[in-house]
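Budget justification aside, the reviewers requested a transparent look at the raw inputs and outputs of the sequence design task funded under Objective 1. We therefore reproduce one unedited record. The lines immediately below are the structure tokens for a 289-residue chain.
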């Protein structure tokens, strides 16, 4: 499925977690691994410290060499290292296109993103939203990396993005036998626009939720793939994380554009962005079937 993988690497614990996940996948399923380190600094910084560019390239090369040695030692695989200068997300996306990569792997927060994560502006979020290919976002290093994802959760709202995510999950089932859980979270409209929900309105919301899940069920039946349907109520991101923990999910697959309702994005950012900051398991942002 992922013959060529590009890992965004800055030496942080988060990017090391992403690298470890990618190495486990390559060792299990084969493929080519590229390690990319981007040198980033602004013009003001360069004027104050004119020799900083050369030093950062030296540091970047050292980081990559150390990572390559560790990869060979622990996973027995080879990786190619790429050093580039510029905006991290833009450089990574450009290189992915050049390499014809099938997957970008990134830690939840790169160094550039540490100061920006409160406004959901990390490099990983930029990649997740702007990449034309799949992006795997990893926060926590796997304890026993095996390169397999046996239990997958797909948040579903019948949008184009969520249908794409479900089709990607079907590929994991067909190729690796992964079990698939599909959830829909009933929105609490009264928390957003402050009105009282009557029993009849509540029933209509539930009916709509069942209709949405039936669409996922029909997709699964057509593909002849078994799935488990889950409906819950609350804030989508928090509930998705809760379900993932309860079901012992080891991979979340989600579309790139957040929840179906635009109001949620205006108030708190897209569901995708919130999940990336809350969840500890890998999140695959599906861009291609």
């Amino acid at each position: 499925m992922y013959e060529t993988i590009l890992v965004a690497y800055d030496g942080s614990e988060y990017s090391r977690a992403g690298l470890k996940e990618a190495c486990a996948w390559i060792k299990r399923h084969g493929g080519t691994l590229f390690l990319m380190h981007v040198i980033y600094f602004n013009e003001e910084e360069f004027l104050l410290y004119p020799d900083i560019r050369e030093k950062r390239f030296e540091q970047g090369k050292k980081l990559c060499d150390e990572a390559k040695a560790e990869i060979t030692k622990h996973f027995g695989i080879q990786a190619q290292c790429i050093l580039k200068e510029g905006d991290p997300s833009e450089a990574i996306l450009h290189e992915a296109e050049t390499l014809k990569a099938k997957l970008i792997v990134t830690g939840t927060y790169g160094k550039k993103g540490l100061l920006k994560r409160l406004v959901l502006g990390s490099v990983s979020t930029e990649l997740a939203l702007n990449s034309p290919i799949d992006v795997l976002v990893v926060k926590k290093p796997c304890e026993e990396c095996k390169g397999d994802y046996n239990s997958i959760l797909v948040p579903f709202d019948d949008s184009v993005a969520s249908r794409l995510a479900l089709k990607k999950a079907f590929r994991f089932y067909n190729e690796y036998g992964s079990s698939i859980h599909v959830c829909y979270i009933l929105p609490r409209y009264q928390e957003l626009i402050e009105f009282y929900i009557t029993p009849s309105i509540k029933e209509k919301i539930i009916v709509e939720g069942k209709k949405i899940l039936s669409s996922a069920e029909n997709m699964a039946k057509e593909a002849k793939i078994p799935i488990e349907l889950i409906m819950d109520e609350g804030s989508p991101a928090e509930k998705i994380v809760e379900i993932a923990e309860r079901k012992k999910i080891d991979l979340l697959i989600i579309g790139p554009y957040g929840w179906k309702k635009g109001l949620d994005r205006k108030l708190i950012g897209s569901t995708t962005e919130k999940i990336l900051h809350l969840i500890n398991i890998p999140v695959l942002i599906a861009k291609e079937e």
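Residues 4-138 form a domain with the Rossmann fold fold (CATH 3.40.50.620). The chain is about 50% helix and 20% strand. Computational costs for records of this kind are itemized in the attached budget.
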